Structures are given as structure tokens and as C-alpha cells.
Amino acid sequence: MSFIEINNIWQEYGAHVVLERLNLRVNAGEFCSMVGASGCGKSTFLRLLLGQEAPSRGTILLDGKPLQAEPDRSRGVVFQRYSVFPHLSVLDNVTIGLELPNARLLGRLFGASKREARDRAVWMLQKVGLGQALEKYPAQLSGGMQQRLAIAQAFIMQPRVLLLDEPFGALDPGIRKDMHALLLQLWGETRMTVFMVTHDLSEGFNLGTRLLVFDKVRIDPHEPNAYGARITYDIPLNEARLAEMTNPQPDNVYALRS
Ligand SMILES: Nc1ncnc2c1ncn2[C@@H]1O[C@H](COP(=O)(O)OP(=O)(O)O)[C@@H](O)[C@H]1O
Ligand SMILES: [Mg+2]
């Protein structure tokens, strides 16, 4: 049994078929990069994995059980455009996830563990280059900084399944490289299962253990919405090289995870 099993799913909105007969098996710890033409259903697929929407047909199993209808903490997400809490400071935006009652790792935080959570949030914010902006509010940040805040927010939760929808597209090349290194470090340490949509083919080839290509196999030029996309290529990537790139550094703050 695979960690995630996607059996023959379709997603239709009225007469518009977005995904059709999509099948996929993913083991825990795999890192799937996903590419495909704009509008072919990649974000839709992530929403299905998140449990935000149910497929029109077919089933999605997580650990052999049907996916919960509601998103829960086991699945974290970074959307293409930042989504942070405008009324919370940068630091609070990142610690709040850890303070929620059902946070997977730490539960409710008091005293020492609250300080540890804060330390870890500061560590994560330094990693995304926001160490100097802890007390700022999102409106005071540039778009790229808000996006990095959203990345820190998702990464700190260490979800079992991390869903990334073009998370780095809006970032400058240098910062994007830093974010790649951070993602690989966290993935190397936690072996969370990652699904990352990207429009940058080289990013897809460089980061994943597997590259999934979404495309339509049938096209009716008179009715462009009559047929949906599915995964047309499933390319294994060089995991040994990726393991070299991750090479996690010992880090006391981060080690509080266990
Ligand atoms: N809730 C919805 N209702 C109707 N159409 C939708 C809905 N969500 C997505 N679509 C359509 O599904 C298609 C795929 O969208 P999307 O998954 O965002 O593509 P991608 O992320 O690959 O660019 C688009 O044509 C979009 O307009
Ligand atoms: Mg999209």
C-alpha cells in the first residue's frame, strides 16, 4: 500500500472537464515536482489533495483511508500568492501555527516550550531572510517578503504532506536558490512528502525525486473544455544527487522537533 493512492479521479466543473482518469501512487517521503501548461489543472489537483474539494469521481486514499473532507494539520500548503494574517506581526504569523491546540508536534505551549517555539520561529524566519523583520506587519513587507513569510509559516509546521503551488515564482533568483536549499534541508530532515507545482522546468528537474507532467491526451479543438488533463509523464529523478544536496546541518534550535 502506498502512502497516497489516487484512483481514477476526475474533476469536472459543469461541462468543463479539468482532470480525467488520473492515477498516482506516492510513497511517504517522495518529492513530486509537477509541471504542465497553465490552466491544465495543477492547482485543482492540489486542492483535491488538500481536501478543499472532493473529486467528481474517483478516490484519494491517505494511509489507506479516504482523505478527510476538511483540510487538517497533516497537510500544509503554500499558495502561489502569499496568504498571511495581516493583523499579526511576522513573528506571530509563524508561531501561531505551533500554538494551535491541535498542532501536531508541540500541542499547547506554556513556559519553556513556548520559548522553544518562539526560538524555532525566529530560526525559521532567519532562514527565509526575515530575521530583521520580526516585529513588522505584513503590509510593511514587499510581496516577495510576504511570500517568504508564508513559506516560513508552512515549513515550521512540518506537515506530513507539504503542498506547494508555485511557491518561489515571485522571488528573486538569489533568494529562490536560498529557498530551494531550505526546502531540501527540511525535506532531508523530516522526509515529509512534498508536492510542488512549478512553471520552471529546471526547478522541477532539480528539486524533486519525481517529475509529474500534466497534460491532456485528447483534445477537441471545437470544445477545448471537453477533455481533461492527466499525468502523461512520470519521470524518476536522481535521488542520490538530491541526497547530496540536502546534507542537513546539525542545528540545536531545529532539533527540538523530536
Ligand atoms: N471552482 C472552479 N469552478 C470552475 N472552474 C474552475 C474552478 N477551479 C478551476 N477551474 C478551471 O479549471 C481549470 C484548471 O485550473 P487550475 O487548476 O487553476 O490550473 P493550473 O493550476 O494548472 O494553471 C481552469 O480552466 C480553471 O478556470
Ligand atoms: Mg495554478
TrEMBL record:
Please list the residue ranges annotated as the ABC transporter domain. 4-241
Which keywords accompany this UniProt record?
ATP-binding, Nucleotide-binding, Transport
Q: Name one Pfam family in it.
A: ABC_tran
Tell me the superkingdom of the source.
Bacteria
Q: Look up the signal peptide feature and give its range.
A: none
| Family annotation (PANTHER family) | BICARBONATE TRANSPORT ATP-BINDING PROTEIN CMPC, SPERMIDINE/PUTRESCINE IMPORT ATP-BINDING PROTEIN POTA
Q: Give the protein name, as stated in the record.
A: ABC transporter ATP-binding protein
